[in-house]
Write a structure and sequence with these properties.
The chain has 13 helices and 15 strands. With 423 residues, it is an alpha/beta fold. Pfam families: ketoacyl-synt, Ketoacyl-synt_C.
């Protein structure tokens, strides 16, 4: 294969991958659990759930949390991102220790001060009189670590220092498309010749009360609390919402020319990326599906392919009634009456939100490597309105050279990636 693509841009190779998911730590454990159809969804143990409509999630309990108070979301995001990046960088064998030869693109949630910390400030500020906002400000003054955690730059700067990436780290959030956006930025930097390599991370740690309540108020979450492993049901007739989850994925991207020059093992290629937004509603997609269809088509065109050359689609597949309906609309519009197989790993690991696009890009690479389609579990009652091959319940052997990975976010932020086999 040539080092330049059909548009004369650098071909982008993946030389390292890392994962943290509710199925385990590391690529091998997470991928084995996925192919086995094992669910990582369980009852929430991190905080009390009395009086909550949803009491299940895809929690990741870090080793350092054992026997102590759970980490805040920013702390969890940083630790999981670091674990995934360590695996990816080590696997790529790139650069000297602590000297990654390229920029960092970090996809993460818009972290805020969480209620436990706010209540600590309130208790510190109380002096017998009525509590005033100025008292809270005074109690929070000097809390540098807290404010660094609650800004995008704090986590990105520390990860950049840890791995020795070059330039200013870029932290971004594009709702549920965030992880895919981080990869898209890395791909574009390499294609333009601005970098020979990039460290792209998607991380999420928002299984905490406030985020759970917010999504619950939107009626977006599954309430199948009595059967946690069976709660996430993408594309299935009885689906009723997604299951919140967390995790991280990291990918080391390089120009194919650079990877070959240093004798690196190429795990696969990022052939194309497509991005569209519909600016229709804060949570809903435009009913015409224009942005979803446009993102899928743009990614395939960017890869220099025709729809018929896509062998499998790694679905966004959240399990909400509307998302699965809209993704089906997009599939039929792009692929016609003979769409390729599609399946959703969210049936097993839940919706990892800001990490989802990056985690699913890794799963897409592994699908090609092992020629094995992961299943959509909990598929018991097919929905006649979804005429797709969703690889129900059991993994399947298949010939796969190119995968379309879909990420459709709240607010109509959509990013699709085309992943290809190593040359």
């Amino acid at each position: 294969m040539k080092d330049r693509n059909h548009l004369g841009r650098h071909v982008v190779a993946v030389t390292g991958i890392g994962l943290v998911t509710p199925l385990g730590f590391g690529v091998a454990e997470s991928w084995a659990g996925l192919l086995a159809g094992r669910s990582g969804i369980r009852r929430i143990s991190r905080f009390p759930t009395e009086h909550l409509r949803t009491t299940i999630a895809g929690e990741v309990t870090l080793p350092e949390e054992m026997g102590r108070e759970p980490f805040t979301s920013p702390e969890r995001v940083e630790r999981m991102a670091a674990l995934a990046a360590e695996e990816a960088v080590a696997g790529a064998g790139i650069g000297a220790p602590g000297r990654f030869p390229g920029p960092l693109f970090l996809g993460m949630p818009p972290v805020e001060v969480e209620w436990p910390q706010r209540l600590v400030f309130a208790r510190q500020a109380e002096a017998g009189a009525a509590l005033r906002y100025s008292d809270l400000i005074a109690a929070a003054s000097g809390q540098q670590a807290l404010f660094e955690n609650c800004l995008f730059g704090g986590i990105g700067e520390r990860l950049a220092d840890r791995f020795g990436t070059s330039g200013a780290p870029i932290s971004l959030t594009t709702a549920c498309a965030t992880g895919a956006s981080s990869i898209q930025l890395g791909v574009e930097a390499i294609q333009r010749g601005e970098a020979q390599a990039a460290l792209c991370i998607g991380a999420e740690g928002s299984v905490q009360p406030e985020a759970l309540i917010r999504f619950s108020l939107l009626s977006a979450l599954s309430t199948r609390n009595d059967e946690p492993p069976r709660a996430s049901r993408p594309f299935e007739k009885t689906r009723e919402g997604f299951v919140m989850s967390e995790g991280a994925a990291a990918l080391v991207l390089e120009s194919l020319e650079s990877a070959r020059a240093r004798g690196a093992t190429v795990l696969g290629l990022i052939l194309g990326a497509g991005e569209r937004a519909d600016s229709f509603h804060r949570t809903r997609s435009n009913p015409d599906g224009g942005a979803i269809i446009g993102a899928m088509r743009a990614a395939i065109t960017d890869a220099g392919l025709e729809p018929g050359q896509i062998d499998y689609v790694n679905a966004h597949g959240t399990g909400t009634p509307e998302n699965d309906k809209m993704e089906t609309l997009g599939m039929r519009a792009v692929f016609g009456d003979s769409p390729p197989p599609i399946s959703s790993n969210k049936s097993m690991i839940g919706h990892t939100l800001s990490a989802a696009g990056a985690i699913e890009a890794v799963f897409s690479l592994l699908t090609i490597r092992d020629q094995r389609l992961p299943p959509t579990i909990n598929h018991e009652a097919p929905d006649p309105a979804i005429p797709l091959d969703v690889v129900p319940n059991v993994a399947r052997d298949a010939k796969v050279a190119r995968v379309l990975s879909n990420s459709f976010g709240f607010g109509g932020q959509n990013v699709c990636l085309v992943v290809g086999a190593a040359p």
